Amino acid sequence: MTTKALTFAVGRRDAPAGSPRLRTVNGVAPPSIPMRALKGVVLLACCTVVVLPIVSVVSTSLADQRQITTAGGFVLWPDNPSLNAYRAIFAGGVVTRALTVSLGITVVGALLSLAVTAGLAYSLTRPRTFAHKPLLMMVLLTLLFSPGIIPSYLTVRQLGLLDSYWSLILPVLVNGFNVIVMRAFFMDLPQDLLDSARIDGAGEFQTLTRIVLPLSKAVLAVVGLFYAVAYWNSFFSALLYINDTAKWPLQLVLRTYVVDNAVLSADQLNLVGEAPPPQQSLQMAILVISLVPILLVYPLLQRHFAKGLLIGAVKG
Amino acid sequence: MSATVEGAGTTSRWARLRRDKFVLLLGLPGVAVILLFHYLPMLGNVIAFKDYQPFIGIRDSPWVGLENFRVIFNGDPEFLNALTNTLIISFIQVVLVFPAPIAIALLLNSLLSERIKRVVQSVLYLPHFMSWVIVVAIFQQLLGNAGLLNTWLHARGLEGLHIIGDPGLFKVLITSQVIWKDAGWGTILFLAALSRVDLALYEAAAVDGASRWRQLWHVTLPAIRGVVVLLLILKLGDVLTVGFEQIILQQGPVGTDASEVLDTYVYSNGILGGNWGVSSAVGLVKGLVGVALILAANRVAHLFGERGIYANDR
């Protein structure tokens, strides 16, 4: 179980994020200067360790062959930045196809997951409904154990989903933890609001679409983004279920040509009468395009995840 | 809602089914997916007790009793190697990976500037959202034989370091990758717990003459004890599960002696090797042990008066 699966266990974040620490009043000394300097150095080092590799990956993807050779394969800042590597990647070959596959699976998967998760979460918000306890238990138990690699594989094969894009979506369509988070959020909505909607004559469907969903944008955003990131990053299900290289998502291409260093030929890139750019910058460019979507949604994700995931979630 | 539900206890099951049909329909697709891909596959574990042959099918494959479990009980060397590696890696991770987010959270929590805190958090959470393929690729670019570090060393006439692909360093390498990827994200829980500390406690401690270290020990640390216990329980349940994707990506150059863990053993023996029965048996035992460990650890936590994963009072 990942740490993500635990955020709900901590519960409500009581202190507003912006509240200043008051520790310096009432005679508590602020930390000494050397102590503060030490903290600064440690935190700066932590941040550098994260940022530097990402910067150099981007730089190398933009560098030309001469600089890569002189630098011995790894560039910190490109002298003559060029987009050749990216042009080669987007020329319609192996990488372009994998990128399309990944984008498709991410978008379709995340939307489907979000819809199904929201439905299930909403159906579990009322303790007196039919079969409420067993259904809730069924969801909670998925958090405790998973079916295992072999049985999952056999099920997917039995359903005839091997080498089908659905094998990358259906088995992971619903994540129990996301259901619980969303359910907690729905249950936290002011009950009076729902009651008054009903008194005004709104049916179940209208209450859901006009009141509940519009009020739940934050949690829908977080859960949707978590699903999207999971689909985008998914590597193992493709390794298990997709044998046809033409159907490979980006992560498998990344594994083969970047981690395992397989050579990408001009043919595979669909380059006609043109030498492929340096392998190193190609590899880094593939790495960059698999990072870009994450970097793009990251600010959104970050704005919402504290709100969505830490909001009073202990109602299990 | 409360008014309509008053008499729910007496309503017949059929009437409730009719009354709740809208919400039940909403939940149906999710329930179906969970049953189909989570609970149905568990039945597939019967092949652990069979000599499963794909072309005959699960139903017609002959029963073999506990034959498949012999690798476990007789201590097949390959299995033992995978088990040992798993346990060693788990142990290293509890010792080195587990405290990392706590340390960072305490550091962040002690910052006076909210803005710096937020910037650092933003940077440190980022790697969590990268896939293992990306992380492994980045590490290769940094530490590989042609990577940044070795290039820098060669340029200064120093001997290169063979890090990626060295079986002896493999466990250290994957541990540092886990820290790089998830230590920052791991702080979220601790920071949330820390943000709930009543600031008056610090003032009271200071008035009583407690130094900053004493405050850390007597005020800050007790505040995160519950979370620490909870996470340790869950870690214990995961003790037989160590970074499957991460390891399978890097197994090639290192070899299985140093890198085979239970999950990769199940994968390579079952799905690649066709030893379906044996690898299901190993997977099944691994899953059951994991659940048993979680429940046992939770019981222990209750004995010590902690809340654990679920409260005991219900």
Can you tell me about this structure?
The complex is a heterodimer of chains A (316) and B (314). By secondary structure, chain A is mainly alpha-helical. Chain A folds into two domains: 32-81, no CATH class; 83-310, Orthogonal Bundle (MetI-like fold). Chain A is 66% helix and 0% strand. Chain A has 16 helices and no strands. The longest helix of chain A is centred in the C-terminal third of the chain and has 32 residues, at 279-310. Chain B has helices at residues 2-5, 13-19, 21-43, 70-73, 77-97, 99-109, 114-125, 132-143, 148-155, 170-194, 199-207, 212-237, 244-254, 256-259, 262-272, 276-303. In chain B, helix 6 (99-109) crosses helix 10 and helix 12 (212-237) runs antiparallel to helix 16. In chain B, 40% of the residues are buried. With 314 residues, chain B is mostly helical. Chain B contains 16 helices and no strands. In chain B, 69% of the residues lie in helices and 0% in strands. Chain B has two domains: 2-49, no CATH class; 67-303, MetI-like (MetI-like fold, Orthogonal Bundle), CATH 1.10.3720. Chains A and B meet through helix 1, helix 2, helix 5, helix 6 and helix 7 of A and helix 2, helix 3, helix 6, helix 7 and helix 8 of B.
Task: Write the topology of this structure.
The complex is a heterodimer of chains A (316) and B (314).
Chain A: H1 7-10, H2 33-62, H3 65-71, H4 84-89, H5 94-123, H6 132-144, H7 149-158, H8 166-169, H9 176-188, H10 191-199, H11 204-215, H12 217-233, H13 236-241, H14 250-259, H15 266-269, H16 279-310
Helix pairs in contact in A: 2-16, 5-9, 5-12, 5-14, 6-9, 10-11, 12-16, 14-16
Chain B: H1 2-5, H2 13-19, H3 21-43, H4 70-73, H5 77-97, H6 99-109, H7 114-125, H8 132-143, H9 148-155, H10 170-194, H11 199-207, H12 212-237, H13 244-254, H14 256-259, H15 262-272, H16 276-303
Helix pairs in contact in B: 5-10, 6-10, 7-10, 10-12, 11-12, 12-16, 15-16
Largest interface pair? A-B, 114 and 113 residues
Q: Nearest-angstrom radius of gyration of chain B?
A: 25 Å
> What's the total number of strands of chain A?
0
Which series of helices and strands of chain A comes N to C? HHHHHHHHHHHHHHHH
Estimate the helix proportion of chain A, in percent.
55-70%
Keywords (chain A): Cell membrane, Membrane, Sugar transport, Transmembrane, Transmembrane helix, Transport
Domain ABC transmembrane type-1 (chain A): 99-301
GO biological process, one term (chain A): transmembrane transport
Transmembrane segments (chain A): 41-63, 101-123, 135-154, 166-186, 218-242, 282-301
